[in-house]
Amino acid sequence: MPEPTMTPEALERFLASAEPGRRASVTAFRAITGGYSRLSAVADVRWDDGGAERLVLRGDPPPGDGVFVSDRDSEWRILRALSGARSVPVARPRWYDATGEHFGTKCIVFDHFAGRTLQDVLRTAEDATAPGRMFVDTIAQIHDTPLDALGGAAEHPTSWDDYVDGVLELYRAVDREVADSSPVLRYAGALLARHRPPPVPFTLVHGDCQPSNVLVADSGRHVVIDWEFARIGDPREDLGYYTQIPMPPNVYHRDPQAFLARYRERTGLTEEQVNPGTVEYFLVIGMARLLAQILQALDAVSRGGTRGIMATYLINAVTHQYGLYLDVCRRVVA
Amino acid sequence: MISRPTTEQVLLDCCRVLEDDVLPAVADEPTQVRLVMLGKVLSNAAVRAAHEVAWMREEIGAIDAYARAVAATTASDDLRATLEALAAGPHDSLHLDDVVEVYVRASDVLSAALEAALADGHAEFVREGEALLAARLTHEDDVVGGWESAGR
Fold first, then answer.
1. What is the pLDDT of residues A100-134, one digit of tens each?
2. Cis? peptide before A249, omega within 30° of 0
3. What does the angle CA A259 – CA A185 – CA B79 come to, to the nearest 5 degrees?
4. Which of A142, A226, B12, B81 is most exposed, with the fewest beta carbons within 10 Å of its own?
5. Record: contact A246-B148, CB cut-off 8 A
């Protein structure tokens, strides 16, 4: 596939192909930041029938560039399933350049959702209680999605023990694979395999669960975005993952007991299943795939490759994670 | 070779130029974020340049001593093999690639020693191993100086 060409001209050509009965002109177009993995842009489009709309484009960076790898086909399938199921609100997926024919990269085109991130709402709220509750309820909403609604969009793990073993083995595998060596990962993997929390039923897991991925309109309506790491797994992965998000305010850390009590109330899970101890266990599980990808990107750099500034910048994140993992291990041992 | 300014000082000066001169002149938002990340990477590299050889050498010695004590009371083939690999490393060289090679081998030793201590239920060795991990992370924290997730 050639270099990504997410440009106004490419969008006009794509829309002509997607909507053959009418013609679109792109009146504004700008790249946006926010996520750490995909290329994103916002475009204003005027149709020759008089209509106008704002769209969001989300494509892959050039092969070998960037750090995080995810499957755009899978994200498209999950988005389509969620959009149809209406179990959790998502920005409406409109079209998909599945081959990269038009944009030089696989690219999903969404309806633009006018709103602020929930993280921004939390940061600026005089009283963050209500937006904090909204976040907990949104997580519960994701986890309440009927798995049948996903159809074949995501793989269903066979057993809970095998699933956890597989994730812990990922740490061992990446430690074998890369040129550097990570004793914290090896230790955490060996220790946590010996201290398992009680299982819970599998659910849809967002995979990058944080208020920055919830957009809130002035009306209070909200959508959940960035589904690239969504999968079927243990719902506590999303809770654990959120605990390591560094941007303040962190709703969990402000009052872990209140956060978890509301989550349990919304999901029906028990305190034995969902408590600060199980949540931090699933920090290690929920971060595994992304941390492995960061380490693989750093390994590529150490072998003379380049993954852009993101890879070396994320050394900071690795250090952050290792500190958290060691804290988890110490509490498990104690 | 020119030794002053030191590598640390050179890199920190680059950070200042990036932050004070370059960044304010850039309007493109994604490029601004990349520049912030670049500044952070350079400041991390400055700390590493100043200390990493000394820190790694200190850790290597401590890990070796710890792992030999664990090996004396456990029967881990993996630990024995990694200790042999560590002993065969280029210990006499201070070139960074060689120091890193020995450090990576020592890290494998620490992993194997902790796994052996866990498998044998040897709580004291587990605590000592955790203390070595904590010392390593203290140095890593000194390099990083906090994680803020630029651009998000």
1. 999 999 999 999 999 999 999 999 999 999 999 99
2. yes
3. 150
4. B81
5. yes
Query: Measuring CA to CA, how many Å separate B92 from each of A132, B83, B95, B133?
Result: 56, 17, 9, 24
pLDDT band at A275 (very low <50, low <70, confident <90, very high): very high
SS3 B150: coil
What is residue A35's predicted lDDT score, i.e. its pLDDT? 62
How close B21 gets to chain A, by Cα (Å)?
Answer: 19
Q: Please enumerate in sequence order all residues whose Cβ is within 8 A of that of A204, keeping only pairs 6 or more positions apart, or say none.
A: A88, A142, A143, A145, A147, A150, A154, A230, A231, A232
Give the residue extent of every domain in chain B.
7-144
DSSP state of A196: P
Interchain CB distance below 8 Å, B41 and A309: yes
Query: b/e string for A177-213 if b means 16 or more Cβ within 10 A?
Result: ebeebbbbbbbbbbbbeeeebeebebbbbbbbbbbbb
Note the pLDDT tens digit of each residue in B34-80: 999 999 999 999 999 999 999 999 999 999 999 999 999 998 999 99
Question: Between residues 275 and 304 of chain A, which touch chain B (CB distance below 8 Å)?
Answer: none
Nearest of A57, A34, A35 to residue A44 by alpha carbon: A57
Separation CA A333–CA B126 (nearest Å): 9
Look over chain B and give the mean of its residue pLDDT values, rounded to a whole number.
95
| Radius of gyration of the CA atoms of chain B, in A | 20
**A110 vs B145, higher pLDDT:** A110
> Would you state the pLDDT for residue A61?
83
Phi and psi based region of residue A219 (left: phi greater than 0; alpha: psi -120 to 50; beta: remaining): alpha
Domains in chain A, ordered, with CATH? 8-111 (3.30.200.20), 116-333 (3.90.1200.10)
ipTM: 0.95
Contacts of B114 in chain A (CB under 8 A): 183, 186-187, 190
At residue A1, the pLDDT reads 52
Residue B135: closest CA among A283, A325, A323, A188: A323
* Nearest CB to B104 within list A34, A180, A316: A180
> Which residue among B114, B144, B150 places its CB closest to the CB of A186?
B114
